[in-house]
Design brief:
This protein is mainly alpha-helical and about 90 residues long. The protein folds into two domains: about 35 residues; about 55 residues, Ribosomal protein S18 (30s Ribosomal Protein S18, Irregular), CATH 4.10.640. The protein is built from four helices and no strands. The longest helix is centred in the N-terminal third of the chain and has 35 residues. The protein is rod-shaped. The termini are far apart.
Length: about 90
């Protein structure tokens, strides 16, 4: 009985360590991706003002897809984020 109990404790502790290792590895991947890579257009939010300014003219018009070179999906996302940023008064 004692040996089985110790084995169960060992297995639960090992599972806990495996779970923590997976979480730490996931956090490492997320942090390294954020530091080493710039955001793709689909990752931008309305708070990323400096990056969204690349897709807007000086007068505030949204650049068309043929100029930006984005996919249709990415262009719609960028347009939505720019309009949301204007609504929140963070963009011109």
């Amino acid at each position: 009985m004692n040996r089985e109990h110790n084995f169960q404790i060992f297995e639960s502790f090992r599972n806990l360590l495996d779970f923590k290792a997976k979480i730490n590895f996931y956090e490492y991947l997320m942090n390294s991706e954020e530091k080493n890579q710039s955001k793709t257009p689909l990752m931008l939010t309305w708070q990323d003002i400096e990056q969204l300014k690349r897709f807007v003219t000086e007068t505030g018009k949204i650049l068309p897809r043929r100029i930006t070179g984005l996919s249709a999906h990415a262009q719609r996302h960028i347009t939505k984020m720019i309009k949301q940023g204007r609504n929140m008064l963070t963009m011109k």
